[in-house]
Amino acid sequence: MLYNKETALKVAEQLLQIKAIKLSPDKPFTWASGWKSPIYCDNRLSLSYPEVRDYIRRELALAVIDKFGKPDVIAGVATGAIAWGALVAQDLGLPFVYVRSAAKGHGLSNMIEGYIERGLSVVVIEDLISTGMSSLKAVNALRDAGCKVNGMVSIFTYGFEEAERNFESETCKLISLSDYDSLIKQAVISQYINENSLKSLEAWRNDPVNWGV
Fold first, then answer.
1. Most exposed among 7, 64, 101, 172, judged by the fewest C-beta atoms under 10 Å?
2. What is d(CA 89, CA 142) in angstroms, rounded to the nearest whole number?
3. pTM above the 0.70 mark?
């Protein structure tokens, strides 16, 4: 679910402007999964642009309060959302933890870094949602630690049906500042893409697994 349409278009515009999102239908990118994709998203780049960083930080914090109320703790998903989670926690005056992709292989073998205790309510911050599996792994780690996860707020989601099913099956509400449909709409408005590119981007969105094969 989008936080709101105005924010969705503004975030998409900013990510396009600073090239945190790159659109290249003619020379597609290859994701780690092996998928061919006309889009590449690296929201960490936006941390280097103070105005963009401040806007996204503010909208993430507003989305947390508006959709979930003020939790006890903000958690970031490693590694891309560690900085964003810390910024939101600072903005809201809340404790911060982050969740590793896997338990640390030495020392205390922590998966959650930072102080956490059973019974605390948590909102999770994520930078990017594709299938949602790695994000939900963090949610389940917090639940296993006895926390109540109110939900998750992400900067961007591709809006794949698989992700929607995954979040639904784990009973975790997801709110995103922007999504793929908003990105394409803004790319057309700002003339980042032409009609042929638009068709290719829409085809990928409908069948990402077989696109470009």
1. 101
2. 17
3. yes
